[in-house]
Amino acid sequence: MPSSPAVAPGAPAKAPATAGWQDSFWPQQEPDPPVQPLTREEAQALIAKSPSLSPWRVIALQALIGVVVAVIWGGLSRNLPSLISALYGAAVVVVPGALMVRGVFGRGARRSLGGLLFWEVVKLALVVALLALAPKWVPSLDWVALLVTLVLCLKVNGLVLLWQGSKKSRV
């Protein structure tokens, strides 16, 4: 019968061979309980409790905000090129966004992470192209009106998320 090797006095003791990562800094935890699939009624109740918002409604809201900001900007400045520049700023957000929504959620769209990334790259490339073409396409371009409207249209996404979150917390 083999004997265990002698440990010199004052030498640190070796950890037993069974000690693994569980004996490190991480506390011992109970394993998670097994996941139970939802019944049809439970799934329907969960969906009814937190309905999703159509991306087309977000695009429509961006367009509405863009038109309202452009009309206000044009009315306050009394300058037609500023109105057109503000409308162009809204179009820079809405047109690529609508193209992406069509590509991701349209008929025959394959909903995958790769498809989402592809359409995001297309959207960003179109935004860059539209901004680069703005001086050629918009006579007497007012960059301030264009960029302010563009930023306000983009902020619609955050407002929709805040609104959805507050709606869920009230339920």
TrEMBL record:
Pfam families: ATP-synt_I (PF03899). Residues 1-36 are annotated as: Disordered. The keyword Transmembrane applies. It is a multi-pass membrane protein. It comes from the Bacteria. Residues 1-20 have a biased composition (Low complexity). Its main location: membrane. The chain crosses the membrane at residues 58-76, 82-105, 117-137, 143-163. InterPro entries: ATP_synth_I. GO terms for cellular component: plasma membrane. It is found in: Cell membrane. Keywords: Cell membrane, Membrane, Transmembrane, Transmembrane helix. This is ATP synthase subunit I. It comes from Aquabacterium soli.
